[in-house]
Design brief:
The protein is globular, with a radius of gyration of 22 Å. The chain has 347 residues and is mostly helical. It folds into 2 domains: 9-243, no CATH class; 283-342. Helix 1 (9-60) crosses helix 4 (144-170). The chain has 11 helices and no strands.
Length: 347
Amino acid sequence: MSWFQPKSALWWVYCLTSLLGVVGLALQLAPVAALTWRDILVGLPFTLATLVVFGWLVLHLDRLRAHRRIRTPLVMGFTWGALAGPGIALFANDHNMRIIQNLAGDAFAMDWQAPISAAIVEEAVKGVGVFAVAWLGKPLLNRPIHGLLLGGCTGLGFQVVENITYSANAGLLSAQHDPANAMLVGFVRLLTGITSHWMLTALAGIGIVLAVARADWPVRRRAQVFVQFYLLGAALHFGWDAPSPASVPVGSIAARTILYILIFAVVYTWVLRTERQWFRAVVGWAVTRGIAPAGELSTLISRQSRRRARNAERLGGNYNRRNLLRRQRTLLDWVQETGARSGIRVP
């Protein structure tokens, strides 16, 4: 897939929206940043750590190197999240919260306007980006892991830029340009980043990609899958931003973190199982056609099986770890390419 698709109207919408989003973010953030640029610089190491840590985590979830064939869509998703998402979300959240305040009153709005607006606006903005990239990359994106990776990268782009805005706003709390506030905000955002936008949009991305790609499913089934996963991400976003009981604020955050990790683990276990089903089907398809022998390919199904294969080679006396790792990666990439050409879908 090429990122440059000038014949597609959707591609132009993607580019224009990203441009307008970054311009809108700059205009909205500029007055604050002019006053708190020192705090942005103080928070920058935490922002970069967020990018590195959770970028590694998203890619680490891909056990069979599916991301190698979809690098361009992943970059496009991250770009949308970083450029289009925050600027649009800032503008829309401000207006949404005023509407909620006018309709429900100050007392209700104080606690609930932020979680309601964020769950609606931010998940919608990120979801539109995932949809646009999934549509542009339909030949490549058709499995649950593709949706998880694309959603994770899109959410991570949003998360990284949002951290910059939090660092900028933290400086407004200190009249003497004390960097302590920005450092505290950056550290807390990094610490709680495990349950932030990358996770929420990764869950929603599964449903979006499957709804776009699985033309072999009935429309009702595609709609059900989309609604289930998208609303799961939005509900978790609402739950995270909802006010904690005044008596147990820290305990509530810890409990939510554990709960969210468990929910994500359940979904991810299912995604991983579908990947292994797909991998076995592709290997079987290749073997029956005489394209490849079954023995070595069957050892690639998991990191544990690949490690066992390397240990067996080491015990055999003919062992070069670097060469063997390179060969296993090459074979995994070959299976991904072969699987794409075979047309095999996850059951």
